[in-house]
Amino acid sequence: MKHSYSSADESRLLRDVIRSLLLHRVWFFIGMQDVKRRYRRSFIGPLWILLNLGVYVGAIGFVYGVMFGQDLKAFLPYLMLGFVTWGLISASMVDAGTVFISAEGYIKQFSYPKQIYILRAIVSSSMNFAMGLAAVAVLQIVLGTFEFTGWLLAIPGIVLLYMALLGQTTIFSYLGVAFRDLPHALAGVLQVVFYLTPIVFPISVLKSHNLEFVYLINPIYHLIDVVRHPILTASLAPLSSYGFVFGYVLIVYCIAWYVASRLDKKVVFLL
Amino acid sequence: MTQNFIRLKNVGVRFTGNMNSDGLIGWLARKRSGEPASGAYAVEALKDVTIAIEQGERVGLIGLNGAGKSTLLKVMAGIYMPTSGIAETEGHVCPMFEFATGFEMHQSGRDNIRIRGLLLGMTPDEIEAKLPEIEDFTELGEFLAYPVRTYSAGMFIRLAFAVSTSINPEILLIDEVMGAGDIRFAEKAKRRMFEFMEQGKILVFSSHNFDLLKSFCARTIWLEKGRIIMDGETEKVIAKYRSSQK
C-alpha cells in the first residue's frame, strides 16, 4: 500500500476516490451508525419516517388532490413518491454542506481519504429513501395499483439518480467547508425549487397554463421523474428525461471534479 | 515482503487563511477587486524538509511548541498535503495524534470502538475478535454501553488509547501521547505503549521526554520554525538541543 502525496499530483484525487469506494465497509458502517443514532431513545424509532410521511401525504394529498381535481388513487402515490425522492435530493445539497465539518475529528487524525465521509452521508440519507419507497409500495398494494414491472423499470432511473447524488453531495460538501453560509442559502433556494417542481401538484396544472418550461428545464423534475414515472405507470419515463438526466450527471461530475481538485487539499486546513 | 518507508523530499506546508472569515460575499468581492482580504495570513509550518526513514528505524522528533512536529507527522500520515515537494509512504500508517476528538458523542463506547477500529484499518472481524480484549483494557465496564457524551476526559483517552494500540502497525506515528489518564492507567498505558512501539516496523514520535527518546530512538530529528536543524544520533542531537535552550 504505497501512498504518494506531492504538491502537484493530479492523479492523487482519482486514487483517493477509488480507494474510498473500496473502503465500503468503513463508510457503510459509519453511515448505518448515523441512522441508528438518529432514532436512538425514540420509542418507535425509524417508524417516525413512515408516520411523518403518512401524515404529510394524508393531509396534503387530500387537500391538493381535491384542489387540483385529481383522482386520489393515483395522486397519493404520486405525491408520496415525489416527496420521498425530493428528500433524498435535497439532502444531497443541504445536508452535504456539513459532511466534512461533522467529520472533522476523523479527518484530522485518521489517514483514510476524506471521500469516505461523502459516501457515509449518502448511506444515511438512503435509509430514509428506502423506508419511503417501502411505504409507497405498501400504499400501492393497499390501493391495488402495485405493479412489479414498474418497480423493475425504475432501476435505471434510480441508478442515474444515485450518480447525480454522488456528484451533488461531493460539490456541496466541499463548498460547505469553504463557504459556511452555503447550507443556509441553499435551504432557502431549495424551498423555492420545491414549490416550482411538480411534487405536490401534477404536471397537468402547469401544462394547462402553458408553463411547461417550468418543469422541462428543471433537472430536479427529471431526476424525480425517472424514478416516479416507471413506478406509477409501469412504463419507462420519456426518453428525453433519461437524456436530460444523463447530461445533467455529466455536467455535475465536471463541476464536482473541478471543485474537488481545487479544494481537496485545503479542506483539512479549513476545518 | 515489501519494505516500508517514509520519504519526504523538499516538503513544504503553508497554511493560508483569513482571520475575518467573510464567507461567500467577501470572496466574491475580493475576486472582483483582486485585492487580498484584510486579515489574511500565511504560516509556513514546514519549509524544505527532506527526510528518508527506512524499515526498522525508530525516529524521535524534538523541537519547541510550534516547531512543526505535529505538522510533519500529519504530512507523513497523509492528512496534510504538502504544498510543495513530495511525500511518499509505503505501508499501513497508524496515526496516534489525538485521543480527545473523533467520537460519535451519542453512540455507545462499544460502537465508538468499532468506528475507530475501522478508521484505523481493522476489518470488522478483527474488531469483533479483539473487542473483549480492548474492552478489558479500557476498564470502563458497564460505561461501554453508555453514550460517550457521558464520559469524562480521562475515559475518552482510555477508550481511544485501547483501540489505537490494539492494531498491528506498520508505520506508527505518535504525537505526544504519553501519560494518558490517571496514575494507575498511565502506568498500564506506558507498558502497553512500549510493547506497541516495539511492534511498528517504522516508528516516528515526537516527545519532550529526553529519556524516552534515548531509550527508543537511535535517530532524532530536531525541528525549529518548520526547518530541520539537525538530524542524527539521538545523544548528539539532544545534547545540541539542550545547549541551545539555555
Description:
The complex is a heterodimer of chains A (271) and B (246). The model of chain A has no long low-confidence stretch (mean pLDDT 88). The relative contact order of chain A is 0.13. Chain A starts with a strand and ends with a helix. Chain A has one domain (2-270). By secondary structure, chain A is mainly alpha-helical. Chain A has helices at 11-22, 24-38, 47-67, 72-91, 99-102, 104-107, 115-143, 148-153, 155-178, 182-196, 203-207, 213-216, 219-233, 239-263, 267-270; one strand spanning 2-6. Chain B is 37% helix and 28% strand. Chain B has eight helices and nine strands. In chain B, the strands form two sheets. A six-stranded mixed sheet of chain B has the order 5-6-7-3-8-9, sandwiched between helices. In chain B, a hairpin with a 2-residue loop joins strand 8 (219-224) and strand 9. The termini of chain B are far apart. At the A-B interface, strand 1, helix 2, helix 6 and helix 15 of A face strand 1, helix 1, strand 4 and helix 3 of B. Chain A: InterPro entries: ABC2_TM, ABC2_TM_bact-type. Chain A: GO terms for molecular function: ABC-type transporter activity.
Gross morphology of chain B is globular
List the helices and strands of chain A in order: EHHHHHHHHHHHHHHH
How far apart the termini of chain A lie comes to 27 Å
Supply the number of helical segments of chain A. Answer: 15
CATH class of the domain at 5-92 and 206-245 in chain B: Alpha Beta
User: What multimeric state do the chains show?
Assistant: heterodimer
Biggest sheet overview of chain B: 6 strands, mixed
Q: Spell out the helices and strands of chain B N to C.
A: EHEEHEEHHHEHEHEEH
The most extensive interface between chains reads: A-B, 35 and 45 residues
Q: What is the first-to-last residue Cα distance of chain B? A: 47 Å
Q: What does the average pLDDT of chain B come to?
A: 83
| Overall helicity of chain B | 25-40%
Q: Uncertain segments of chain A of ≥5 residues (pLDDT<50)?
A: none
Name given to the CATH architecture of the domain at 5-92 and 206-245 in chain B: 3-Layer(aba) Sandwich
From the 3D structure, determine the CATH topology of the domain at 5-92 and 206-245 in chain B.
Rossmann fold
Strand order of the largest sheet of chain B: 5-6-7-3-8-9
Taken as a percent bin, the fraction of beta residues of chain A is: under 5%
Family (chain B): Belongs to the ABC transporter superfamily.
InterPro entries (chain B): AAA+_ATPase (IPR003593), ABC_transporter-like_ATP-bd (IPR003439), ABC_transpr_TagH-like (IPR015860), Bact_Polysacc_Export_ATP-bd (IPR050683), P-loop_NTPase (IPR027417)
GO cellular component, one term (chain B): membrane
Protein name (chain B): Lipopolysaccharide transport system ATP-binding protein
